[in-house]
Each structure stands twice: as structure tokens, then as C-alpha cells.
Amino acid sequence: MERVYGNMKIKSNWFDSKKKNRKIAAIGYKGLNLYLSLGKYRLVRLTNNIEFRIHVTISTLRKETGYSSKEIIELLKILINQKIIRLIKPTRWDRLYDADGKLKSNEQLVILATDVPVTTRVTSDDGKIEDQIKSDEDYYISVDLDMLEYYKTVGLDERYFPLYCLLRKLSNGTEGKAFMTIHNMAETLSMHHDTIHKYIKILNKMQLLCSDKTKNKKDGFMFEHRLCGSVSQYNEFQYAHKNTMMRNTKRWKLDCDIEKIMESNIEELELYYGESDLEETTSSESVEYEQSFENCDGEYEIV
Q1: What is the pLDDT of residues 23-74, one digit of tens each?
Q2: DSSP character string of 249-289
Q3: Contact (Cβ atoms closer than 8 angstroms) between residue 209 and residue 203
Q4: CATH code linked to domain 7-151
Q5: pLDDT (tens digit, 9 = 90+) per residue, 227-264?
Q6: Mean pLDDT across the chain, nearest whole number?
Q7: CATH class of 171-296
Q8: What are the structural domain ranges in the chain?
Q9: Which of 58, 136, 161, 170 could form a disulfide with 105 if both were Cys (CB 3.0 to 4.6 A apart)?
Q10: How many CB atoms lie within 10 A of CB 11?
């Protein structure tokens, strides 16, 4: 995988499940996608590492996102209302239109990304260069834009981006694992829990997420999710977790018709998957899982 766009930092609190006014709920997956697309055209940080300046056109954003000009302008307004960006040029929206009311799609926009984590680059005692946050409000998620481009090449569109970001946030511990339940993921992202199930299973099929069964404190089991977060980790991630992801694919019968599953709606998913098997379970439910798991014929082993 080639590195082109690099990483972009977004504030971790956008995905804070305890905040009712968390920004991911306000901007949705399309707003997030547009903001990350803007990040590809960031030029330089201004005002002591607090703001990004972005130069881009509506025409360019149309090509990046596939959205209409009207939808892009509406999403920009949402980002402005959420105090995520500030429009510097034009100073008024009506100045984006000529005398005949036609949109000047090649007119350059100048945008400041204002709700960005404030960090200072420091060198640790062991010689590593790190970004040190200024305050608790500046905890951040490092989004690998090249990994999200790879998602697109394998058919995973921007609807997967919020889950990627949340799993990146949850995997910041030393073990690199996310333990949040499907219900809480769905609530945090304002999505249906069946949609989260679908995405997790497809990401395992695409070998971009490894969901591993482990025992919980209730004598049942839960899942640990390990995300392939960046293109630089891809080969190592494949080497470590390929067998487990293949086992999951066989267990969840995703080999049948992956394209159909990716395009299916929630009702179709319920018919295809049956009851969910990714949530935490009790010990009796664990027995049922183990029995169904025996159908894998022991072909795949846990790495």
C-alpha cells in the first residue's frame, strides 16, 4: 500500500459515548467524510498549532466525495454550525454564485479547521518523537487517510469511516484492543446495532478487523476487536491475525456472497445472519456458540 495523504488528527471527544452532543452524531458519516476529504487539502497549521488552513474547490470536493454541489454546501454549513470549520473565503454563500445564479464550482474556498487537537511535538527520553497534548480536550484519534482510501478500493464506502474512527479511539491502549459492546458502539455512532454487526463481519471478511472471542467475567464470552489502523501495519496485521479472520468468515458464512451481504439492508441481514452472535453472552449461550462453532471442522486455528 502506498502512502499518499498521511495521517490526520481529529478530536477523540467527537466519539465520546458519554456526551449527548458528541459531534459524530451531529455531522453523520457524510459530514465526517467531507471533513476528512478537506483534510487532504490542508496546507499549514496556523496560530500556534491550533488551526488548519484549507484551500479547495466545490468541484474538487465533488470528485472526492461523489456528493452533489448542493449537498456539499449543506454539509459545510453543518460543519460550520458545529464549530468544526470556519469559512474565510467567500465571506458570504451568495458570492459562490454568478449573476445568473450559477454556482462557481471552480472558485477557491479558503477554510479554517478550528476544532483540532492542540499538540506539541516533543522527543521522549528514548529518542521517539511524540505529539504531546495540551489538555484533556486535546486527546486525538490518528486517522490514516490512506487506509480509508484502501477501504474504498475494496468496496467499503464512507459509511464505515465512523466505525473505523471509533475503533481507533478504543484501541489506543497498550493492548491495541477495543472491548466496547455492539450496543454501545451503535449508540455512540447513532447507528442501528444490526448495521454495526454487518460492518464488523465484513471488515473481518476483508481482513481489516480481527474479532476474537474471549471469556468475560460472567462466565460467558465477549469479543475483542483489533483494527488494522494504518497501511504501515497491514502486512504485520495479516501475518498475526489472518487465520482468526478466516475462521470468523467461515463461522459467519460470509463466503456465500459477500457482495450481496455488503449491499443488503437490515431486514435482509436479519434473515441472512439470524440472531446476533457478537454481543456478550451468558455461559449457557456460550455452549450454543461452541456447538455451532464445531461446524468449522477445526480448519482454522486461533493465532
Answers
A1: 999 999 999 999 999 999 987 555 555 678 999 999 999 999 999 999 999 9
A2: HHHTTTTS-HHHHHH--HHHHHHHH-S--SS-B-HHHHHHH
A3: yes
A4: 1.10.10.10
A5: 999 999 999 999 999 999 999 998 887 655 555 655 55
A6: 83
A7: mainly alpha
A8: 7-151, 171-296
A9: 58
A10: 19
